[in-house]
Amino acid sequence: MSIVQDRIRDNMILAYERLGALSGKSTFVQTDRVQRFESDIPFGLFNGVFTYTYSGEADPAEEIKSLADLYRERGRKLAWVTYSHEPDDVIDKALAANDFKQVDSISGMALSLENWSSEEAGIPGLEVRAIREPREIAQYRKVILAGFGIPEQMADLFSQVFVDGPNADTAVIQHYLAYLDGNPVTTITTFTQGDVTGIYNIATLEAYRGRGLARATLDHVVRDVQAKGAEWAVIHATAMGASVYPKVGFKEEMTFNIYAG
């Protein structure tokens, strides 16, 4: 794995670790061979293995079964993440032996900020703010819940993990909210560790999609983190955003393959 791919992967793991700690809703477990999360959160990768190195002594299929059983005992399915630039037939076969199926993939993208400059012309009436005030956080919460289509019964838990908890850590996490003609329309959150800023929670209200708002908001945020000293920006993109982010300069470097069993 290259240094760039390390940055992409590690920022995601560290972000999940921090989110879980701030919300008190998940536990990060790290040994010399495994990094994983366990929780009662029924979304995302909060019940997942992010890194695993088999010992060469134990049977990988048996080790994966033992890990999966820990989650089944809690009433959760285990998500298992592999990486396109670290192909491993042994792990693939061990996952298949435990009936793990690939359920999703995420594009790991990176942008060097050393010589990056914005080409975005801007959108009339669009204002992007770094937010902290309670009223702004309430607006952010409303936009992200609607933008991601979070069911009402999950809204409070989602907000605890992705909205309220992160707002308590001003050192590394920042919420942004974009307003179009005064109306809150798009969200972004950044997570910074060292010289790398991860960009998360990109959501736009359905009625405002197709106008380039996510791209313009992302462009503003990248300029902001660049000015604060970040040397790299990374994004973990779903299929919906994968066509947007290269327009700002992000390049796909790897794929996260997500299995469930």
Write the layout of secondary structure elements.
Layout: H1 3-23, E1 26-30, E2 34-39, E3 48-52, H2 60-72, E4 79-83, H3 89-97, E5 101-112, E6 126-131, H4 134-147, H5 155-164, E7 173-180, E8 183-193, E9 196-204, H6 213-227, E10 232-237, H7 239-242, E11 251-260
Parallel strand pairs: 3-4, 9-10
Antiparallel strand pairs: 1-2, 2-3, 4-11, 5-10, 5-11, 6-7, 7-8, 8-9
Pfam family, one: Acetyltransf_7
Domain N-acetyltransferase: 126-261
Protein name: GNAT family N-acetyltransferase
Order of H and E elements: HEEEHEHEEHHEEEHEHE
What's the arrangement of strands in the largest beta sheet?
1-2-3-4-11-5-10-9-8-7-6
Number of individual domains: 2
CATH topology of the largest domain: Aminopeptidase
Poorly predicted runs of 5 or more residues = none
Helix tally equals 7
CATH superfamily of the largest domain: Gcn5-related N-acetyltransferase (GNAT)
By DSSP, the count of extended strands is 11
Mean pLDDT: 94
Q: Whole-number radius of gyration?
A: 19 Å
How much of the polypeptide forms β-strand, as a percent range?
25-35%
Instruction: State the shape.
Output: globular
CATH domain class of the largest domain = Alpha Beta
Q: What is the helical fraction, as a range of percent?
A: 25-40%
Q: By helix and strand content, what is the structural category?
A: alpha+beta
